[in-house]
Amino acid sequence: MAGVYYVRVKHHSSTGIGSYAFVSHFTPNNRPDTISTATPINPNSTTQGNIEVANDKDFFKIHIPSRGTLVVETTGVTDTYGTLLDANGRQIAFNDNAGGLGQNFKISKLITAAGTYYVKVKHSSATRTGSYMLVSHFLPDDHANTRSTATPINPNSTTSGSIETAGDEDWFNYVKRQTCNDSTHSRTWHSITVSKTLAQILQAINA
After folding, report:
1. CB neighbours of 184 closer than 8 A, spacing ≥ 6?
2. Which of 2, 58, 104, 176 is deepest in the core (most CB within 10 A)?
């Protein structure tokens, strides 16, 4: 906290005397230590950070515009520990050594809702310091992963897609209407939905 501080100097012995040189160094904290003062960064960016003192923590704020995969990691020789937090400060992911050199953290998380997220960076050791680079990548999900939000496509079409992360599913749907009339009934087939990750065709028939 900014303010006025005082230093008192005395001899170790209550009867001793002697001269000395008083040396002072001040290193400002380059990144805030709380969520409320977190440093804003872009979803796709590289930001320098530094653990200046023991038990220092750096907070970064990222606005995610849509559903997609967020990857945050550090590079460098400092042994970092990272935590991903939601808008309310609740932990949703953490990592220690999945990144480069076996000592940088790396978090890959599917973000299901747009909003503000926070990254907390600290040293893996509470007593050590060091600099790092925080690297952030965000890849929007190209297609929804549920039947109710499937991407509409034409029956005769080509649509690009990407499986961004392990377990990702892309859902597509098109409506094919064919009515058959005879003396006994009329029937309509519709709504064929495809999940390309499961190679699965679902068909709903209304009699």
Report:
1. none
2. 104
Q: How many angstroms separate the CA atoms of 47 and 66, rounded?
A: 22
- Is this structure's pTM higher than 0.85? no
CA 102 to centroid of chain Cα atoms: 20
Q: List all residues 6 or more positions away from 4 whose beta carbon is below 8 Å from its beta carbon.
A: none
Pairing of strands 68-75, 106-111: antiparallel
| CA 21 – CA 148 distance, rounded (Å) | 73
Q: Per-residue pLDDT tens for 2-27?
A: 788 898 889 999 998 989 888 887 76
- What one-character DSSP code corresponds to residue 141? -
Q: How many residues appear in the chain?
A: 207
Q: What's at 38, amino acid-wise? A: A
Contacts of 6 (CB under 8 A, 6+ apart): none
